[in-house]
Amino acid sequence: MSIGTNLRSLREERGLTQEQVAEALGITFQAVSSWERDEYRPDTDKLIRLAELFDVSVSAIAEEKHKAFKTKEAIYNWEHMKTYVKTTAKNYKLTNTLKAVDYAVQAHEGQKRKRSVVPYIYHPLNLACHALSMDIFEDEVLAACMLHDVIEDCGRKLSDLPVNDETKELVRLLTCQKTTESDREQILGKYYEGILSNPKAALIKCMDRCNNLTTMSWGLSRDKIYRMINETEKYYPKLLETVKATPEYNSAAWLLKYQIESMLDIYKRLM
């Protein structure tokens, strides 16, 4: 498909008229019409503004559709991951993890990942499986992977969690209060400072960022992708140093650093 066809398809999917697109870009609707008829092509500046308006990549507009790849939002089935984590927890007698899995599934019931049909529980299960894949079988770490968002996103209280005090402390450190544009930097600075005080929390937060980076392409707007890239570059090098300084997490630190920096580089090139 041509640029014109892509533009028309994106505009219609979002229920916008040519006049509304023109007004958003500060141009005439005749210009939009000429683009959609492939009489003219939008310049680079207009392509970027169109991508921001439609909340897609520039390539989604500029590339012919036959060159586009089929994508998927979820790689593994969340129920299979749940079975794997629970079976492993039973085999290794990880009592906190066993309780945390069931609690998290119930707490996140009905929730979806941003702008997708993927059940939210896919995310904490991914973290637990990520830890297991790096040969991390610590009960508190796996349980906190499962519970790290239940206070922030599910309205649960720390005292409600069916786990030991060490796991609760990890969840507390990983829970960030809501921010506004005016207080965001101050709150985030304090939040990451707290996580830096605990290598296990730093480890979980790095796995959390790895998973969130993989979903940026469909879960976040371009502005929020830029913000996440900047936030990652500002705070995560120190988190990775904290993880690396813990001997039993040396291998995990190498892999997490590789994953985070590779994902950032890919996004920068595509943006």
What does this structure look like?
It is a single chain. This protein folds into two domains: 65 residues, lambda repressor-like DNA-binding domains (434 Repressor (Amino-terminal Domain), Orthogonal Bundle); 193 residues, Hypothetical protein af1432. Helix 6 crosses helix 8, helix 7 runs parallel beside helix 9 and helix 13 packs antiparallel against helix 15. It is elongated. With 271 residues, the chain is mainly alpha-helical. The chain contains 16 helices and no strands. Helix content is 68%, strand content 0%. 31% of the residues are buried.
Name the average pLDDT.
Answer: 92
Task: Write down the Rg.
Answer: 22 Å
CATH topology name of the largest domain: Hypothetical protein af1432
- What's the main sheet like? none
Order of helices and strands: HHHHHHHHHHHHHHHH
Tally of individual domains:
2
Q: Shape from CA axes?
A: elongated
Strand content: under 5%
Distance between the termini: 22 Å
> Structural class of the secondary elements?
mainly alpha
CATH class of the largest domain: Mainly Alpha
Poorly predicted runs of 5 or more residues: none
Annotation field: number of helices: 16
